[in-house]
UniProtKB/TrEMBL annotation:
Gene Ontology CC entries for this record: cytosol; presynaptic active zone
InterPro entries from the UniProt entry: LIPB1/2_CC, LIPB1/2_SAM_1, LIPB1/2_SAM_2nd, Liprin, SAM, SAM/pointed_sf
SAM domain segment(s): 226-290, 303-361, 386-417
UniProt-listed PROSITE patterns: SAM_DOMAIN
Name of the protein: SAM domain-containing protein
Species of provenance: Oncorhynchus tshawytscha
Domain of life of the organism encoding this protein: Eukaryota
C-alpha cells in the first residue's frame, strides 16, 4: 500500500500520468521539428548543389574570359608594336621624302637655270645670225655700189683715153682687161653675193665645258684636284645643296675649300648655320688626313632614325635641319646640343650613353636591338644595346604594360640603363609616372630592374646613390652653357680649337673623367664592352708606381 501511495503521489504538483502525457506531446513535437528540419536540410542541400554547379559554371566562364582577355592583351601589344614600327617607318619615309624633295627642288632649280641658259644661248645665236644676215646684206649693197662706181670710173677713163690719145692702145687694152675682171656693177646681182668661210661677228658660244657637266667623282683622285662642278655635286650629296650657287661662284677646285679659313665659309659660301660649318670642316679634315672613320658612312637621315631608337624623337626636326650625321655625332659637344635645343640633363646623358654604344660597336648602324630576341636572361652586354622600344617590350614582359607608353620621348634605352650609375629603379619609376604610394608596384619594378642589370651593377648603383654629394636624376634638371671667366680669355689665343671642345662622349679615355655629369666609370660588368674602359685600370696601375 505504501508503494501504491508513492506512485500516485504528485511530483512537483504533477502526477506521473500527466508527466507522461506531457513528455509524449514533447516527443511528437520534437519528431515533427526533426522532420521539418530534415526537409529543410534536404532543401538546403539541393540549393548547395545548385550553387556548386553554378559556381563551377561561372568559374569556367571566368577562366575562358581571362584567356580571351590575355589574348586581347597580346593582340593589343602586337598591334601597338606594329603601330610603333609603322610610325617609325612613316617618320623615316617623311624625312626621306623631305630630303628627296629638297634634292628635287635643287634639281629643278638647276634644270630651270640650264633651260634659261639654253634659251639665252638660242637667243644669242638667233641674234648673231640676224646680225650676220643684216651685215651680209649691208656688205652686199656696199660692195655692189662700190663695184658700180668702179665701173663708171673705168668707163670714164676709157673715154678720156680714147679721145685724148690714139696711141695709147696699150693703156686702153689694160683698162679693158681690168673691165673683164668682173668689177662691173651690172654683172653682179645681190642674190649672187655669198659670205666667206669666216664670220667677223662670231663670238664665244654659251656652252658648258665638258667637265662642267660631269659630277662623277673618282675617290682615288685627291680632293684638292676636284673640279668646281665635282665639289658642287659633292655638296649636294652631302646635304649642303643650298650653298651650291655661291660655292660655284667662289670655288675653283677642291683646294679652295681645303685652304680656306672657317670665316671664309660664312663670307664666301653664306653658311651661317654653325653646325653646317662644322659638318663641312669635319669632312674637309677627313679629306686632309685621309683618315677612314666608320662614322662618316652614317648620313643625317640615319641619325633621325637613331633618335627614334634612343627614345628622343622630339629632336628630329632640329637634327635634320642641322644636317647632323654620324661623324658629327662623334664630335658632338655640349654647346652643339644646346644649339639643337636639347637642354634636359637626362637627355644629354641619354645621347652621351648612346654615342658611347656607337663607339663600342664601331658605329655599326644596326647595333641597336629593336625586337625581343630569344634571350631569357639577357646579360648587360645585351641590355646595353636595347633600343627604347625594346625597353618598353621588357616592361610588358614584367607585367607593367600599362606604364610602357610613358617611356616615349624619355630618352631611356639600354645604354642609359647600364652605363649611367645614377639611373636606378626609382628613376625609372619616376619616368613611368608610377605614384609613390604604390609601394608594392615600385617594389616589383625594383626587383625586375635588379634582375635586368645584374647584382654587380645594382650594388654599384646603390653605393653611388649612398655616396655623399649624390644628386639624383630628375626630369627638371637643365644643362646650361659654361661661362668663361675673365682669366680664361688670355689663354684662348694660345689654345687650339680642339682643346676647347667639350665633347659629349670623348673619344680618348682621358676625357671620360671630364664629361659633364659622367664623372665615374661604368661598373666592371660592362668594361669588357669598351677597349677604352679596359685600358683604364692598366693605365692607373702603370701610373701608380711611377708617382
Amino acid at each position: 500500500q505504501s508503494c501504491c501511495v508513492n506512485q500516485q503521489s504528485p511530483v512537483n504538483g504533477e502526477t506521473n500520468q500527466e508527466r507522461l502525457t506531457r513528455l509524449e506531446g514533447d516527443k511528437e513535437s520534437l519528431v515533427l521539428q526533426v522532420s521539418v528540419l530534415t526537409d529543410q536540410v534536404e532543401a538546403q542541400g539541393v540549393k548547395i548543389s545548385d550553387l556548386e554547379s553554378s559556381l563551377e559554371e561561372h568559374q569556367h566562364k571566368l577562366n575562358s574570359t581571362e584567356e580571351m582577355l590575355q589574348q586581347e592583351l597580346l593582340s593589343r601589344t602586337s598591334l601597338e608594336s606594329q603601330k610603333l614600327n609603322l610610325m617609325g617607318e612613316v617618320s623615316y619615309l617623311k624625312l626621306k621624302l623631305v630630303d628627296m624633295e629638297e634634292k628635287q627642288f635643287h634639281g629643278v632649280e638647276r634644270q630651270h637655270k640650264a633651260e634659261e641658259l639654253q634659251r639665252l644661248k638660242t637667243g644669242m645665236e638667233t641674234l648673231l645670225v640676224a646680225n650676220d644676215e643684216k651685215v651680209s646684206r649691208r656688205l652686199s649693197k656696199v660692195t655692189i655700189n662700190l663695184f658700180f662706181s668702179l665701173g663708171l670710173v673705168v668707163r670714164f677713163l676709157n673715154i678720156m683715153y680714147s679721145m685724148s690719145m690714139k696711141s695709147n692702145t696699150v693703156l686702153s687694152s689694160r683698162i679693158r682687161r681690168t673691165q673683164s675682171g668682173g668689177l662691173q656693177g651690172e654683172d653682179l646681182e645681190p642674190n649672187q653675193f655669198r659670205r666667206g668661210g669666216l664670220r667677223a661677228t662670231a663670238g664665244p658660244r654659251l656652252t658648258r665645258t665638258p667637265e662642267s657637266g660631269s659630277t662623277v667623282r673618282d675617290m682615288n683622285t685627291p680632293f684638292s684636284q676636284w673640279t668646281r662642278e665635282q665639289v658642287c655635286g659633292w655638296l649636294e650629296d652631302y646635304g649642303l645643296g643650298q650653298y651650291v650657287n655661291l660655292t660655284r661662284q667662289w670655288v675653283d677646285s677642291g683646294q679652295t675649300l681645303l685652304s680656306a679659313r672657317p670665316q671664309d665659309f660664312e663670307k664666301e659660301m653664306g653658311i651661317n648655320h654653325p653646325l653646317h660649318r662644322k659638318k663641312l670642316q669635319l669632312a674637309l679634315r677627313g679629306f686632309s688626313t685621309k683618315a677612314l672613320e666608320k662614322s662618316s658612312e652614317l648620313d643625317h637621315i640615319w641619325v633621325t632614325r637613331w633618335l627614334d631608337d634612343i627614345g628622343l624623337p622630339q629632336y628630329k626636326d632640329q637634327f635634320h635641319e642641322g644636317r647632323v650625321d654620324g661623324r658629327m655625332l662623334q664630335y658632338l659637344t655640349v654647346n652643339d646640343l644646346l644649339f639643337l635645343k636639347v637642354t634636359s640633363q637626362l637627355h644629354h646623358l641619354s645621347i652621351k650613353c648612346a654615342i658611347h654604344v656607337l663607339h663600342v660597336n664601331k658605329f655599326n648602324p644596326h647595333c641597336l636591338r629593336r625586337r625581343p630576341g630569344e634571350e631569357r636572361n639577357p646579360s648587360p652586354s645585351e641590355v646595353i644595346q636595347w633600343s627604347n622600344h625594346r625597353v618598353m617590350e621588357w616592361l610588358r614582359a614584367v607585367d607593367l604594360a600599362e606604364y610602357a607608353p610613358n617611356l616615349r620621348g624619355s630618352g631611356v634605352h639600354g645604354g642609359l640603363i647600364i652605363l649611367e650609375l645614377r639611373f636606378s629603379s626609382e628613376t625609372l619609376a619616376m619616368l613611368l609616372n608610377i605614384p609613390p604610394q604604390k609601394t608594392l608596384l615600385r617594389r616589383h619594378l625594383a626587383t625586375a630592374f635588379t634582375a635586368l642589370v645584374g647584382t654587380q651593377a645594382s650594388l654599384e648603383k646603390r653605393e653611388y646613390a649612398n655616396a655623399t654629394g649624390h644628386a639624383p636624376l630628375t626630369t627638371a634638371a637643365k644643362v646650361r652653357p659654361k661661362k668663361l671667366g675673365f682669366t680664361h680669355f688670355s689663354h684662348l689665343r694660345k689654345r687650339r680649337p680642339d682643346d676647347l671642345a667639350d665633347y659629349i662622349c670623348p673619344i680618348d679615355s682621358g676625357g671620360l673623367s671630364a664629361m659633364n655629369g659622367f664623372s665615374h666609370l661604368p661598373y666592371a660588368g660592362v668594361r669588357g664592352l669598351s677597349p677604352i674602359l679596359d685600358r683604364e685600370p692598366e693605365r692607373r696601375e702603370q701610373v701608380g708606381p711611377k708617382s
